Amino acid sequence: MRFSVFLNARSLGPEQDRQLMKDLESHAKLASQNHFDAIFLPDHHFNGYMPVASDSFIFAGYLAAQMPHMHFGFSVVSVPLHHPVRLAERINVLDQLTDGKLLVGVGSGTTPEEMIGFAVDYRDAGRISDGNLEIIEQLWAKQMEDPAVVIDNGPYKGRVLQRITPAPYSPGHARLMPVAMKEASSRRAAENGWPAFIPAFTPPRIGGTEPFEHVAKWFGIYKGFLEDAGHAPEVVASALDWTTHTYQCVHVAESDDQAREELEVILRAYQDAVEREAEFNARAESDAANTKTDRTPNALSEDWIGTWCLYGSPETVIEHLMPYQELGIGNILCGTTTGPLTQKRLELGNQTVELLSSKVMPALRAAVPA
Description:
Layout: E1 2-6, E2 9-10, H1 14-33, E3 38-41, H2 56-66, E4 71-78, H3 84-97, E5 102-107, H4 112-117, H5 125-141, E6 149-153, E7 156-160, E8 175-178, H6 183-192, H7 211-228, H8 233-242, E9 244-247, E10 249-252, H9 256-284, H10 302-308, E11 309-312, H11 314-327, E12 331-335, E13 339-340, H12 343-364
Parallel strand pairs: 1-3, 1-12, 2-13, 3-4, 4-5, 5-8, 9-12, 10-11
Antiparallel strand pairs: 6-7
Helix pairs in contact: 1-12, 2-3, 3-5, 6-7, 11-12
């Protein structure tokens, strides 16, 4: 079982943005020194959630230069918010800079506020995402002598005459990672031999206290498609090796009581930040084109904690993860900086990284292929 760190902190204002970037850099280096396998970044715009995620590819390239042994991933790129040419180019550049140690999570996005900033109708996000992915595959496959690739998808237009540069490092292109929540996404990942993100809920309810049931369901569907796709055994093994289950907030302490107490401090600050942003979300959803059809529970509710959190003593965390290891989940993605990144929050995140590394990871990690 692999372990990766998800950089998912919040800034409460422009005066905090620079320090957040510096603190995330130091936290990523700590994860690297403590033998985590990868650093994952989100893709977000306009709000306080990970200000540097407005261009995570730049930040990933900066970090990759300092820790060349690490894998880098995205959880996830909101495909409708990117022109397909620019997304194909960015992925190729980072694929080259990381020597192919790149995992690009792809999804249709969740936030109307971000959609309106890029002139995307929220109702069309899924269609635009699928269209962009089809165009990007055409761009990656195009040779200079091939006919032009014509782009006409939502707000994105264009005509590519030559080719995407640079060429990818990985055969074909870097690995994509769809979210295995829709049959089409699971099938796309499986047929291409890609890993996938395995969710712990089933919409429209985004929460609950029985996450393993959902993980087992979605993983079973994806694995079935993967095994039916006719890949060589090593392709199946590589895909499962990076198939990922995500916890938005992971917190480990010496005892269960201490972990719960500190978790609630973290989540109160997180929920306060979310509520501060609610006014702008409401403005974005003021018309039918941008109204969400699902709602996330309050972060202090047991439904949210049950779905999105992993916490406790090292022994409790190991016990919790063993069924996921037995199921076949290859990578646990740990949100270790959830909420506003105060100095105290950074100390708690560093505590979690060090306890995971020293006590949890050795118990769950078999020999991991390169």
